[in-house]
Amino acid sequence: MTTNTILLLLLSLVIAGGLSYFQYFFKAKNKSNVIWFLAFLRFLAIFGLLVLLINPIMTKNSLQITKTPLAIAVDNSSSIEVLKSDKKVAELYQKLISNPALKEKFEIQSYQFDADFKPSDKFDFKGKQTNLDEVAKNLKSINKNLIFPTVIITDGNQTTGNDYVYRFDPANKVYPLVVGDTTTFLDLKINQLNVNKYAFHKNKFPVEVFLQYSGDKNVNADFTITQGNNVVAKEKVSFSASKKTAALNLLLPADKVGLQIFKASISSGSKEKNSYNNVKNFAVEIIDQKSTIAIVSSINHPDIAALKRSIEVNAQRKVILAKPNDINQLQEASVLVLYQPNSSFKAIFDNNKLAGTNTFIITGTSTDFNFLNQQQNSLVFKMSNQREDYLCEFQSQFNLFAIDNIGFENFPPLQNLFGTITTNGNVSVLLSSKIRNVATNAPLLAFTENQGKRTSFLLGENSWKWRLQSHVDNQSFEKYDIFIDKIIQYLVSTTSKKSLVVTHESFYNSGEAIVINAQYFNKNYEFDEKARLTIAVTNAETKQAKNYDLLKGNNSFSVNLDGLSTGKYNFTVKELNTNTLYSSHFEILDFDIEKQFVNPDVLKLKQLALQTNGKAFFEDQADDLIQQLLENKEYKSIEKNVSTKTPLIDWVWLLILIAAVLTTEWFVRKYNGML
User: Fold this and answer.
1) CA of 13: how far to CAs of 17, 23, 42, 527, in Å?
2) Cβ count near 479 (within 10 Å)
3) Going edge to edge, which strands form the sheet with 279-287?
4) Which among 163, 203, 629, 639 is placed 20 to 30 Å from 648, CA to CA?
């Protein structure tokens, strides 16, 4: 309290006493006990009000002891139960948190982790994943700028997240308490299986398998891949004390279209403690995307050969060459490439008005543009008989499909007749034309879609030079061939714009996040944020149905279907305002990653302890761990002097006292007839 405040308080005493004296004793004839009592009450009220006006700040000092945090993180994943260590983990946890010496020295923080990390003192060991990286990340945030020890009760078998060894703060010691039987058992395991989610019909797709062996004896094993009752692949594999791993690369036939389920398994004549990790199911979506591309031309030109080579680089494409009068050959074509059409193409255009086949029109100096104007209205040609060379300019805003600039500006010019080309309607331009570096604002490569029929235009001949130039620039035809393939892919696809677009996988492994995303577009094909989307999911076998709402995110709606059991499911997404529907299916494969282990990962946990200057302990060394923590002199309680300053105006009781004093004075005066 400052000197000024003390002087003001003394002045307040004088003022309160003077006013009380003037009120009750100045010129007073009667100085009874009642007068003295009333004067005292008036003195208290005035002095209290003056003190509130001065508002002195009261300072209170107290000692506060801050203990070092001791973070105890318990592995709550199902692998603890698989290793039959759940009771031991609960016992070790209770032993640590109930130790009086630890409670006296540390502020014990209790957590659990599986796929997530959260404070908890109860554990059910039902977690579907193990993420030790979450422990490191969260403890850094919770105990920021503190030096503290961490005890992790775990088997060390991580199934998701970053490598935890180097994720913990090296300034804070970590003491892993390893649980589980460390005895080495004979165990064969499919450690990892890599396969593409999609494959093309009547092709072969690769499967990469990594096998792992634990044991000291020589073992011969059989690795097989089956589909139903049929064995589609089989190989012999040998392991020994010095050869613990094996990698297999297999090619499987894609004979059937649709979602195909396979089972990979490894077995030997020896008995294993854990046979669950000997089997792994996987699925592949077989797609029949074989398409026939017909190149129709009445002339011979190098462009045709170059285009045929680029298209057939994709094994799913077959090119046939035809004359304009070979209409019967074109019935199975997915795309018609009409090279420099003239009046002889009339039958093809007339036939295609009914067939609706997507077309790729390439013009040049032999094109009849008057005829072309009659057959389509997307582009309007006003051409002369003079030839002109057209350079190209890449339009980065093009968004019909993803395409990179492969150096179009460096390509040789295409030759076409000179004239004016204007667009009519919705035309997307990928390449625009230039004449001697002067932009014409006219398309050179453009795309249109009208009532579900797609058409692309390449307005110039000699594109074979583009392919050669791309090879000169990149020592490969690959980039140019991919460019042509994307044009053909756009034309092969007959999927028109849908108002409800749903994204999902054909299959999921149990324990994985099952997320389905959806977008709803209005009539202008703009994302509708006000859409109301629901999903009905039905188990194909039990017919049990569940309904969920899709939640809005950034430019999409999504739903998380975690918790579904293995099996086949049908689902329907519905937009409630318009009753727009999307129906499909997915399958959840039986795979529990937490059942893949037979031993704790002692080596990894020891590396973690070494990285943080801690020490790893086994489950029978809990007393040694407690002793280590108690003897470590780094962890000391900190005694702080805490100074608390409180303004007197915050004292509510002082206001109540002043009100009570004034009320009492009024009643006493009233009772004695002094009012």
Assistant:
1) 6, 15, 12, 75
2) 15
3) 198-200, 279-287, 258-267, 219-227, 230-239
4) 639
Residue 132 has pLDDT above 90, yes or no: yes
DSSP, res 595: G
Cα 507 to chain centroid, rounded: 18
Q: Give the separation between CA 638 and CA 218, rounded to whole angstroms.
A: 59
* Under 8 Å between Cβ of 484 and 406: no
Tell me the C-alpha distance between 564 and 79, whole Å: 20
* β 335-339/358-363 pair status: parallel
With a cut of 60, say whether residue 451 has pLDDT above it: yes
Q: What pTM, to 2 d.p., does this model score?
A: 0.54
Q: Among 169, 152, 138, which residue's Cα sits nearest to residue 96? A: 152
Amino acid at position 305, single letter:
A
Predicted local distance difference test score (pLDDT) of residue 630? 92
Distance, CA of 509 to CA of 195 (rounded, Å): 14
pLDDT at 496 over 60: no
Taking only the tens place, the pLDDT of each residue in 368-403 is 999 999 999 999 999 999 999 999 999 988 877 778
Angstrom distances, CA of residue 255 to CA of 199, 207, 227, 291, 330: 10, 15, 12, 17, 27
Report pLDDT for 330: 87
Kindly report the three-state secondary structure assignment for every residue of 513-577. CCEEEEEEECCCCCECCCCCEEEEEEECCCCCEEEEECEECCCCEEEECCCCCCEEEEEEEEECC
Rounded average pLDDT over 594-603: 82
| Tens-digit pLDDT profile for residues 199-221 | 877 788 899 999 988 888 889 99
Give the H or E element holding residue 598: none
The one-letter code for the residue type at 455 is T
Task: pLDDT band for 497, please (50, 70, 90 cuts).
Answer: low
Q: Which amino acid is at 423?
A: T
Q: How many CA atoms lie within 13 A of 217 on its CB side?
A: 13
Any idea how long the chain is?
675
State how far the Cα of 430 lies from the Cα of 443, in Å rounded to an integer: 8
CA angle 423, 426, 427 (to 5 degrees): 55
* Residue of 209, 210, 214 whose CA lies nearest to 187: 214
Give the pairing of strands 414-423 and 335-339: unpaired
